[in-house]
TrEMBL record:
It comes from Massilia jejuensis. Residues 1-20 form the signal peptide. It is a multi-pass membrane protein. SUPFAM superfamilies: Porins. InterPro entries: Gram-neg_bact_OMP, Gram_neg_porin_domain, Porin_dom_sf, Porin_Gram-ve, Porin_Neis. Homotrimer. The lineage of its organism: Bacteria, Pseudomonadati, Pseudomonadota, Betaproteobacteria, Burkholderiales. Residues 7-333 form the Porin domain. Its main location: membrane. This is Porin. Keywords: Cell outer membrane, Ion transport, Membrane, Porin, Signal, Transmembrane, Transmembrane beta strand, Transport. It holds the Pfam family Porin_4. It is found in: Cell outer membrane.
């Protein structure tokens, strides 16, 4: 009897210890607001939008202590449109992130669908709007498609050493008969010291389509994106800057590919760069956030653009923020840059946001 009780107690203690070593959390962002757009062929559009500041999502992340300083990690993240209740990408479930990996003293390796180092540098370091709202970098920076996240990806992330961190990403194209068609390679190196944060990032992708039954091979070659981003906290204001150079087919995809301004369809740049200056300044109970951006198209078409945004973000609590943001873009020589937000590419050259963002 005593042996039975002892065994049961030992099992209970072991189960409790195992549970303590494993952590699973459900998290998410719910973001919705009124969205007014104008300046395109769609005319003046007012609607309820989802994911204006941050894409609405729900996710599951977990860790397990493997001992010896090793931890298993995973993340599954689904994007949702809370204005309609639909998944934000048809035919998918965990379309935003889906990866598993191992973390240890030497760094972390993860495998699955993940963000590119280039996108993370722009969002986390260079853009005060974090690529969201009507004033974010998406207005002129090529933060779309495979520049944002890739499937079939392996990423190694270093530990922080003397303020430095880095990562290397390789996304397999997985096209039969070709080892390079559709593959993506990226890397970044960051440094944090006191009020200063700096990160450089590189993105290299191949857009070829390999020959296969029913498919005609297409050779588009390679494209690259080079980014340097920084911010500095002066206490009274936090300043931001970002510069990206893009070269090659699909290096700089347009957010709205449906000819938003009519006339001759805009051509995505194959050689150009973007520049951003921004700030976050405390004002009353919230923060004023502002950006100035320029797109320099170095091709013969010279389809440049300028964009600016200004907004006010007020935190009702640690998890809930209300916001109002205005953005405007000026296109040159038939360029087709629209005022976007975190989820939508936008339909015109002007947009106004008024909404609420809640995290859990």
């Amino acid at each position: 009897m005593n042996k039975t009780i002892g065994a049961a107690a030992a099992f209970a203690l072991a189960a409790g210890a195992a549970q303590a070593q494993t952590g699973i959390a459900i998290y998410g962002i719910m973001d919705a607001g009124l969205l007014h757009e104008r300046g395109g062929v769609a005319g003046s559009v007012t609607r309820v939008g989802s994911g204006i500041g941050s894409a609405s999502r729900i996710g599951i992340r977990g860790t397990e202590d493997l001992g010896g300083g090793m931890t298993a990690v995973f993340t599954l993240e689904n994007g949702t449109r809370i204005d309609t209740g639909e998944v934000d990408a048809a035919g998918t479930i965990f379309n935003r992130q889906a990866f598993v990996g191992i973390k240890g003293k030497a760094g972390m390796v993860t495998l699955g669908r993940q963000y590119t180092p280039w996108h993370q540098a722009l969002t986390q370091v260079g853009d005060p709007f974090a690529t969201g709202y009507a004033g974010g970098a998406k207005n002129v920076f090529p933060d779309f498609g495979a520049n944002v996240r890739t499937s079939n990806t392996v990423i190694y992330t270093t530990p922080t050493i003397g303020g430095f961190t880095g990562d290397i990403a390789y996304a397999f194209g997985e096209q039969a008969g070709s080892g390079k068609s559709g593959r993506n390679v990226g890397a970044s190196l960051g440094y944090v010291q006191g009020p200063l944060t700096v990160r450089v990032a590189y993105n290299h992708k191949n857009s070829d389509i390999a020959a296969a039954p029913g498919l005609i091979p297409v050779v588009r070659g390679n494209a690259s994106n080079k980014l340097i981003a920084a911010n500095y906290d002066f206490k009274v204001v936090k300043a931001y800057a970002a510069f990206s150079a893009d070269k090659g087919i699909n290096a700089s995809p347009l957010g709205n590919t449906n000819n938003p301004f009519g006339g001759v369809r805009p051509t995505a740049s194959t050689d150009g760069n973007e520049f951003l200056l921004g700030l976050v300044a405390p004002a009353g109970p919230g923060n004023v956030v502002a950006t100035l951006m320029r797109k320099n198209d170095k091709t013969a078409l010279d389809q440049d653009a300028r964009s600016y945004g200004i907004g006010y973000l007020y935190g009702l609590s640690r998890r809930t923020t209300i916001y109002t943001v205005y953005g405007h873009t000026v296109n040159k020589n038939g360029a087709g840059y629209t005022v976007a937000n975190n989820t939508d590419a936008g339909s015109g050259d002007t947009a106004f946001n008024l909404g609420v963002r809640h995290t859990f």
